[in-house]
Amino acid sequence: MSRLSILKYPDPRLHTKASPVLSVDDSIRQLVTDMADTMYAAPGIGLAATQVDVHKRVIVIDVSEDRNRLLTLINPEIIAREGTQICEEGCLSVPGIYEDVERSERVMVRALDRTGQTFELEAEELLAVCIQHEMDHLEGKVFVEYLSRLKQSRIKSKMQKLQMRQSA
Ligand code: NI
Predict the structure, then answer these.
(1) Cα of 147 to ligand 1 centre, how many Å?
(2) What is the pTM of this model?
(3) What spacing in Å lies between the alpha carbon of 40 and ligand 1's midpoint?
(4) Residues with CB under 5 A from ligand 1 (ion)
(5) Helix (H, G, I), strand (E, B) or coil at 73
(6) CA dist., res. 160 & res. 90, Å (int)
(7) Burial (Cβ within 10 Å: 0-12, 13-18, ≥19) of residue 99
(8) Is 79 in a helix, a strand, or coil?
(9) Which residues are annotated as catalytic?
(10) Is residue 13 predicted with pLDDT exceeding 70?
C-alpha cells in the first residue's frame, strides 16, 4: 500500500496526454491500488493517473457515501452522451477551488476493469460529472480551463502563492 504524490496545478505535467494501457497486468493493478489509496486518503472522489504523473489511461472513482464502491476505468471511452448539467467541481490538483462547470448529464462509458475485461456503464449526476472530469485529465485538461481567462489567471497565481508558502 502506498500513497502517491499528486501534481498541483499549474504543473505543466498535468497537460500531458495519457497513452492507452496495452495490457492490464500486475503493474497496472498495483497502480490502481496505489491510486485508490491516494484518492481515499486525500480524500477525493476521483483520481486520474495523470495527476500522479503516470501518463496512462487509468482512472479510479468512488462517489459512494460509504466509500466502498471503487470504480476502475482503464482506457475509458464515452460512447454516448445526453443532456447538460452544471455542477460545482473541485480537483485534488487544484485544492480549495470550486467552480461551476457544464457537462453532459448522462454518459455511457466503455472501459476495461482491473481484470482486463471490457464493461459498459451508464452514469448520471455526480458520477457522470466525475467520469468526464477524470477523462479530461487523461487528455491533459484541468477543469479550471473551462473558466474565463481572468478566473484562470487568478487561480493560477493563488496556487503559485500557496505552493511558495508550502516550500518556504
Ligand atoms: Ni481533477
Answers:
(1) 14
(2) 0.96
(3) 14
(4) 91
(5) strand
(6) 17
(7) middle
(8) strand
(9) 134
(10) yes
Query: CA-CA distance, 93 to 49, in Å (whole number)?
Result: 12
> Residue 1 has what pLDDT?
62
Q: What's the one-letter identity of residue 156?
A: K
For the beta carbon of residue 118, count every other beta carbon within 10 angstroms. 10
**Cell digits of residue 9:** 496545478
pLDDT digits (tens, 9 = 90+) for 120-162: 999 999 999 999 999 999 999 999 999 999 999 999 999 999 8
Nearest residue to 97 via CA among 13, 22, 8, 26: 8
Distance 38 CA to ligand 1 centre (A): 13
First to last CA, the chain: 30
What is the structure's pLDDT at 163? Answer: 87
Q: List, in order of start, the domains of the chain with CATH numbers.
A: 12-167 (3.90.45.10)
Contacts of 110 (CB under 8 A, 6+ apart): 76, 77, 79, 118, 119, 120, 121
Rounded CA separation 47/137 (Å): 9
CA–centroid distance, residue 92 to ligand 1 (Å)? 6
**Alpha-carbon span 159 to 151, nearest angstrom:** 12
